[in-house]
Amino acid sequence: MKTYKDLEKFDKWSLLEKDQLSISVIKGLVMDATRQANSGHPGGPMSSVDFAYILYREFLSMDPKNPEWFNRDRFILSGGHMSMLTYSLLYFCGWLEMDDLKKFRKLHSRTPGHPEVEIPGVECTTGPLGQGFAMGVGMAHAEAYLRNLFSSVSNEANDFIDHYTYVLATDGDIQEPVTMGAASLAGHLGLNKLIVYYDSNDAQISGKVGRSDSSDYKKVFEGFNWYVQNIDGHDHKSIRHAIKNAQNSDRPSIIIGNTIMAKGAFSMEGDHNTHGAPLPPEEIIATKKSLGLPDSKFYCSDECIVHFRNRFKSLSKISNDWENKKNELKSNEAIKSIISICLENNLPDLELPNFNDFDSLATRKAFGTCLDMFSKQLPNLVGGSADLEPSNYTGNFAKTYDDFQKTNQLGRNIAFGVREFPMAAMMNGISLHGGLIPFGGTFLVFADYERPALRLAAIQKTRVIHEFTHDSFFVGEDGPTHQPVEQTMSLRAIPNFNVFRPADAKETAACFKMTLENNSIPSALLLTRQGIPVSDKSIDTIESGVRRGGYIYQDSENPPELVLIATGSEVSLALETSKLMSDKNIRVVSLPCWEVFLKESKEYREKVIPTRGCLKVSIEAGISIGWHQFVGASGLVIGIDHYGSSAPNDDLAEEFGFTPQKIEMKIRKHLDKLL
User: What is the spatial distance between Cα 531 and Cα 653, in angstroms, rounded to a whole number?
Assistant: First the structure.
């Protein structure tokens, strides 16, 4: 075995010897960083480094000078706890410094405990297991759609978008149901440029995998219509062969690498305790010696770096040639337009649909109308529904633009099936890939199924649009299991996440447009099942108010005595209530998006909702928590702090006190108490 002492003759070493020392160096960096941080996961990186190293050094297409090059291969470390593996490789790429590795898990470092998308070379934020896998499916979908979109316009653009998505998954990733849902859909869609490496090291935090899982994942993935290979994950020839086979497959691929946890550790090889804790100092010393490394901390030889980067010149040429081709393609006006919208994020000035004043129209139907209008203007608007097309009003979009399928990867509708969590995670992947704006529809009550992906969307600042219909107890006969009560406020609790609850069709159009234009904040549109009167206000007036998150919808001639603050369908309820209370000076405020409104100046917020001089009343068909910040200590919060019932929505409105008459009664009783 060659060691660091033999480096003077490095150029005479065999490829295997050079790779082995380089891999040992990475293992040393992993051990040192986790030991210095006194936390982290060394075992997994040491078991999967053979595959990851060979992938990066020999196969991964990237621009060494620009980690954001659009047509790069994507690599996702789904098992985000193995972050030091990625950071070591990014150091080898030149995108991180040695000081970054030494600051592993320290405050404000570029090497946090789990990979974060802001770090150069990190494609997505991972850590919650399974979501990296599902985001990889989303990225593979984006690549396939864009490849076919460009090719459909001109033969000159054939393979202009052409890259692989690689995912490194762990036992824990594979066990997560979100992985199974995403994998099933990936196989159905024929995403053949998706290649997953499953590092099967038979060790988890609590012990051997067999304590909780005896599944035959070869059979599982074959059943999902994947191309499956089973290899020795430490054998370099087998790894190279498997990657080449996967690249030539007409199906998504999974390479099951049978590996050993903490491979190379002196006495703890195979020990599950290496999964989530640094190796003891004496174990590190002994392991380094057996691996041919010096005792010094954070050792890395220049020879290993040069060896790793032997493709960099050719990779830079590939990137430069692609950029030149992009400029050449712009001579074709149709392709130029797609490049502008998809790759350069230059959205046109979106035209809004027209709605008839005073019509009764559910905001979910208005969404469908807006979707039809916006999709004509945005070829990069893609998405679908979790098997709720008729209810989410995405069916016409599906009919117009066809389903994305293995045989038609130019379809813009994604038939997600009953897979809410995989849908939301895939949407994050589609957005992070770049070029596309994804939307996904389901019932608001099922937002709970999507919650982990919604949270990662907010953390990663993805541009995703979640359409949540059937937004309150007005769902009616389906009963409490389908009537969201706490979901609206739960979504508002997510930082960096815009929750829109539009009052009518025109507000829906304005809110939808805002979600399309905002490329750094994920959004949710909460929409009604029941019809709501369409305002007679101009769309320009409404859009101006919506863009500020809240606005005076109707005002009194004199300074208001009462300010009724409402969202969604309850805005029209507030208007009807104001008619019954003509003896009072009443202002009605529509507050479609708390998050946007609270970012407005104090002066504007005070102008809309005065702090003093009037009684504030909030009206929303959901839990009351959170509303006191707007109504104040003496204000009245009208909500529903219990679950619903199965009955027609009119009966429920009467039962729960959401009629103009009962709202009026509550307000007058409250006034009597105050006076």
Answer: 14
User: How far is the C-alpha of 241 from the C-alpha of 167, rounded, in Å?
Assistant: 17
Cβ atoms of residues 565 and 609 within 8 Å = yes
Residue 207 in tokens:
């012990």
Instruction: Read off the amino acid at residue 47.
Output: S
Third-level CATH fold of 360-533:
Rossmann fold (3.40.50)
Q: Which helix (H) or strand (E) holds 468?
A: strand 465-469
- Inter-helix orientation angle 43-54/236-247, to 10°: 60
Q: How far, in Å, CA of 148 to CA of 165, rounded?
A: 16
* Interatomic CA distance for residues 254 and 440, integer angstroms: 27
Angstrom distances, CA of residue 608 to CA of 80, 122, 538, 616, 639: 45, 43, 19, 11, 21
- Decide if pLDDT at 675 tops 90: no
d(CA 664, CA 675): 16
Let me know if 561 is a catalytic residue: no
- The average pLDDT across 334-338 equals 96
Torsion sign, CA atoms 452, 453, 454, 456: positive
The Cα 444–Cα 126 span in angstroms is 25
- Residues carrying CATH 3.40.50.920, the chain: 546-674
589 forms bridges with which residues in the sheet? 552, 565
What is the 8-class DSSP label of residue 78?
A: S
Mean pLDDT of 50-74: 98
Residue 103 carries which DSSP code?
T
Taken in order 667, 669, 674, 675, the sign of the CA dihedral is: positive
Closest CA to 171 of 205, 122, 134, 135: 205
Q: Considering the entire predicted model, what is its pTM?
A: 0.97
Taking only the tens place, the pLDDT of each residue in 522-556 is 999 999 999 999 999 999 999 999 999 999 999 99
Class of 546-674 in CATH:
alpha beta
Q: Does domain 4-314 have CATH number 3.50.50.60?
A: no
pLDDT tens digits, residue range 412-442?
A: 999 999 999 999 999 999 999 999 999 999 9
Locus of tokens 């070829």 = 379
* Average pLDDT of span 379-406: 97
Point out the least confidently predicted range of 10-24, 201-215, 259-273, 595-609.
201-215
Percent of the chain with pLDDT over 70: 100
Q: Name the pairing type of β-strands 360-361 and 532-533.
A: antiparallel
> Quick one: pLDDT at residue 242?
98
- Over residues 279-283, the mean pLDDT reads 97
Q: Among 369, 311, 288, 247, which Cα is nearest to 24's?
A: 288
| pLDDT range class, residue 645, cuts 50, 70, 90 | very high
Catalytic residue among 176, 283, 389, 420: 420
Residues of the chain with CATH 3.40.50.970: 4-314, 360-533
**Encoding tokens for residue 668?**
């007058």
